[in-house]
Amino acid sequence: MVPDLPDRIELTKAQVGGFVKPPISEWLYIHKQMVEAEKEAFGVVVNSFEELETYYFRHYRMAKDKKVWCIGPVSLCNKENLDLAERGNNKASINEHQCLKWLDLWEPNSVIYACLGSIARLATSQWIELGLG
């Protein structure tokens, strides 16, 4: 049974997989770092949207007692090999001109670009610009 959830959820050992194996020391170290970083964080970013999982979103927010931002789903890309190979190859799903036009509507420094994963690739100059703010 999965503890601390609003509903009773039961999983078999086969469904849980690697979670029932003894932990590897490197993973324990990484997990400890993640837990410590999360304690210091202002909030948590979640790859979902509140309307899909309202009940669990509220439960998670109360359990964390921090801000929780749902920004997903961010991984609804095609699973075909050709599509996977072409990810991030300057093939925008929206018109670049329309995107820039939309950005121009906002005040300077009021839009945040979040690149989560390997779907989008940035040029070095863009990384520098993001880093400098």
Automatic annotation (TrEMBL):
Source organism, top-level taxon: Eukaryota
Protein's name according to its UniProt entry: Uncharacterized protein
Family classification: Belongs to the UDP-glycosyltransferase family.
Gene3D superfamilies for this protein: Glycogen Phosphorylase B
